[in-house]
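Aim 2 progress update. The chain analyzed this quarter is reproduced below.
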Amino acid sequence: MADLIIYNFTYQSKDPYFRGISAATRGGSNNNLGSGKTETSYGYGLTFNFHKLLPKVWGARIPIRYNYTRRTLIPLLRNGTDIVLPDNIREQEKNDLESVSLGVNGISFNHKGNNLLFKLFLNRLTSTSFSYGRTKQYSVTTPFRYGENFSFRSGIRLGMQKPPSIPIFAWTKSIPLLKKMSASRLFLYPNQWNISGDYSRNLSIVDDISFNRSSNISRSLNGNVELSFKIFENLSANLRYRTSRDLSDLNLVRWSVNDPKIGQETRYVHNFSGNYDPKLFKFVTTSINYRADYSENYDKSFESFRSVLSRSWGVSGSFDHKKLLSGGTVSSARRRFKGGKSNREKAEENLKKGKEKEKKKSGKSFLSKPVSILKKLTNWINPFTYKYNRGFNNSIPGIIKRPGWRYQFGLILEPDIGSLGKTNRQPSANETETYSVSSGFVLFGGVRTDISYRKNISQDLISQGDKYKLVNTSWPELNIRISKFKSLPLIRKYVNKFIGVFSPRTGYTRSNRSKFIVNYNQSGKDFESERVTSVSHNPLISINLKLWRSLSLSSSYVLSKNKRINNNITTGEFQSETNSTRRTIALTTKYSFSSPNGFKLPFFGRIKFRSTMSVELNVKFNSDLSVVNLINNPPSTKIDRSDISIAPRISYQFSRQIKGGITGRWQDSVDNGGGGANRKNHIRELQIWTEIRF
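Predicted structure tokens:
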């Protein structure tokens, strides 16, 4: 019971000349003001842990908090001037602020028994809180200001961690081709079902300097529903619904069961997603997903909504040929067909049926040998992964009627909303399509290569002005890592020593991006207005040299080249070609050491303390070159710049409380491009820092 009530009190007083340690005196005068105001503030707070009075087995948490603060500012000078006010006038221009708050945050219960009240209701409450606040302010510019706010929030979990289920396919257990379905169970209740909401009310009353009073009151209500339903083990669906409503106008509020009216809805959102993961074969994984996001935002100026629909579906998975070849023989297939028998029972059957056993052996030897050869030939290839996705986005401003549920869930792409209202925005729609395939291989157990192909197509369906189509293709995308070899003949020992020290790595990517104008000149043909070809060696080479435990050296060289071709959007003829090259060379070395045993000093003996010193040097060189070739014009340099920077850093940690170091930077930049300009920039920087914590 010692922490049943927690009480705190604060008091602070400052005169007009008070200044903090870091505040400088203006003009060197000792009579300079600090804030120029006499400040007096005090406050107290009370926390009453009401749950301490309840039985401990309830697992309750009900903290009730009350706070009161008051702050008074009495100016030494008249507001907005440097005129010193007499003592009897200062009280008339004081600023007085008073605030009071009361609240209960995080009400929760965690009863472990079988009491239905706790099990079905109290234990399921989430984020339950209540708060009330009130402020009053008096000042010269605002003679009176009053504010009041009230809010309440709560939620409940209705889901079940282990929902009931029934084996609706149990009858397939005796059918060989369908017996795998017998273990499937249909779940009858959502595993996650959360409902939450909050209500807030804000009141504001203000008098201006002429004592003209204005007031404002706002009320808002928000609701959320989150639902997750695992229909089968490999089939699930998720739904989330959110709504925000403005209840400020009470004429729009009618709490009726037959004909309810809950204010003006300002935002409506629902998200639906589904995933199906069939597991028909061990060597093939497939996942089919679908998602539809729909939202509406209220535009008060035009009394209409802006509707946005995003729909996407896709297929992804992998193909593992190693698993196929490991379990694809006739003998293994026959064993799986019999199913359910132990090795001992199989041995007894083989002893009784010698002839059948010989036939199975002969059948096994006939297929196992070519399968074994094929497995060895392809064992160095990694499994293949694939992904396909197709998306649709539609934005319709000015709707005055909500579309049907089929459009909201993306089942149809044309909303049944009739006519549109007024709006200052234009509708838009586009669709996207993405393909990707990736795999890799390992040579000699040391050269690991990842390779992939990607293609992304995005096209405007509805647009203000020209419609565009973007096609991005990346092939190949290579990432090569060299580690210690496992099966390299003859020289493996020496090569592995070299690799263990340097750890080399390289990468290569070639991509092509094309931009088309759809239905160019209403001819029904797409016109390519821009093409960008990029070749990136990221990195061309990268090594991480490990000389010994405390000293390391890493370096990388990155090279990328871009070729951009622009065509005239009116005539379709060649207009310009831009070739760009960027190089980056980076070198980082770091040495760190510590002396846990301390140092031995004459006459003082050995002094022991924990300390660490790190010395780091970063060197980086960048160069950019861009040349433009215009039709009927000689090539011209658009960008030609380079920079080199050298940044040493020495840091020393004497203890957890004391740290220090020196940081420097030497940077030179040269810009020779842009119409003959020749600019140079030099930076010399040195920082000495110390950090002491008390």
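The chain has a mean pLDDT of 84. The two ends are 34 Å apart (CA to CA). These observations will guide the mutagenesis experiments scheduled for the next reporting period.
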